Amino acid sequence: AMQGPVMKLSDLKISTRLQGLVALLLALQLTVGAVGLLGLHRVATAGHEFVQEDFAASQALAVALAELLQLRRHEKDLLIGLGDADAMKKAHASWETSRTAADAQLAKMATLAAHLGVAETLNALTQALPGYYDVYTRVSRAAIGGKYESTLAAHKDMGEARAAFHTAEKSIQAMEEALERRAAEGAKAIETT
Questions:
Q1: How distant, in Å, are the alpha carbons of 7, 27, 130 from that of 46?
Q2: How far apart are the C-alpha atoms of 80 and 83, rounded to whole Å?
């Protein structure tokens, strides 16, 4: 078996060896650069997803919570203003404005809820709120219509509404906790990238 001439590295000119070494180093740098770019792309994608989804949902939930708390404030303003039709109408109008704003934020959250794993909790929240809305609407109409002799009687009739509102608050707290867990998991995923 005849072998052809075998070329040894020592047989090459020094300039050829240096060119080979430069080519090898360049290939290594390109590989490291490509891996780095891939990592940066993953971090950018995760960051973009967080801003587009998790942050937007957290912001919508925070605004919804603020508006829901305003509902309770306007409810109390209405009851405190018992006997003053103008003050009660003003409180009721403010309540309606806050309700509309809260519902808009919850609708915004609904578009992200399934992906974020909070759809069931959001559903519980949106099922609890109509109970509050309905009782408040009934009591506020009666109050504005002069049907209550005392704030205590109107406050007592709001009992079911308060219970529904507290159920809604528990759902909000559960969503906040779920979003916080998701954000922590996302941060951990970015750190490992």
A1: 50, 29, 36
A2: 9
In percent, the amount of the chain with pLDDT more than 70 equals 93
Closest CA to 76 of 95, 52, 54, 103: 95
In the predicted model, is pLDDT for residue 1 greater than 60?
A: no
CA separation for the pair 65, 179 (Å, rounded): 14
- For residue 188, pLDDT beyond 70: yes
Per the CB < 8 A criterion, the answer to whether 174 and 121 are in contact is yes
Of 1-10, 51-60, 164-173, least confident by mean pLDDT is 1-10
Other C-beta atoms closer than 10 Å to the C-beta of 130 total 11
Q: What is the DSSP string of 32-67?
A: HHHHHHHHHHHHHHHHHHIIIIIIHHHHHHHHHHHH
Burial of 165 (0-12, 13-18, 19+ CB in 10 A): buried
Q: For residue 93, what pLDDT is reported?
A: 97
Q: How many residues does the chain have?
A: 193
